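Notebook, p. 212. Picked up where the previous page left off. The plan for this session was modest: take the two constructs that came back from the sequencing core last week, fold each one, and keep the raw output in the notebook itself so nobody has to go hunting through shared drives later. Recording the first one now, exactly as returned: residue sequence, then the C-alpha cell string.
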Amino acid sequence: MAEPWMLDYSDGSSNHTRIWQEGEAVRYEYTPTTPQHSSSGTYSGGRPTRGLVPEAFVVELWGRIQAMATDTSQHTRVRIMGSGAFTIAIDDDAQHFQVRRCASLRDFDAWLRATLNLGRG
C-alpha cells in the first residue's frame, strides 16, 4: 500500500490497537482496557505494547480487514457490547464500520492478539 494509512481498532472489550504506516515502517500500539475503565471493574486487557510489524503481517491484515468491511451482514449501526469498531484512514479519506460479535471478528481478534503478542507484555 503506497499511501500513508492507519487502522484504529477497538475490540469487544474496548482494548485499542492502532496500526499505522510511518515512512517505510509499519508500527502498532496496543492500549488495553484497565480495571478502572472496564464495565466489570475487574477486567484487564493485559499490558500495553508497541512495536514494528513485518510486511507479511500487513498483507494478511488488509485481507482480513477487507473481508470484514465488505461483509455488511455482520455490521451494526451502533456500538454494542462485544462488537469491534474499525476506522481505516488512507491519506485524508476515512472509513468507519462496526462488526457485531461473530466468528470472523473472533478469528480476527485471536489472530491479532497472537501475531502481535498483544496484552502479554
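Okay, moving on. Second construct, recorded in the same format:
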Amino acid sequence: MSYIDTDDLSSFSSEELLSFYCNAASTDYGALGHTKGHMNKTQATAYAAELDKRGEFVPDYGDAAKVGSFNGRGSL
C-alpha cells in the first residue's frame, strides 16, 4: 500500500492506472472500516477519471475488485 497523489496522474501509464484502479476497488470491497473503504473508492474514482480522459476502457467496479489486490499499489 502506498499513497498516490491523484492531483497529477500524468506520469503513470494507463496499465499502471488500471492496476491502481483494480487494487483500490479490491481494498474498498475488503475494507472492514468505512473510512478505509471511502478513501479507496475516492482513489479509484480518480484513476477511472484519468483512464476515461485518456480514452481507455474502465472496467465495472465490481469486476475490477475481483482482479485487484487488497492493499496493492495505488490503494490506501
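Notes on construct two before I forget. The radius of gyration is 11 Å.
Flagging for discussion at group meeting.
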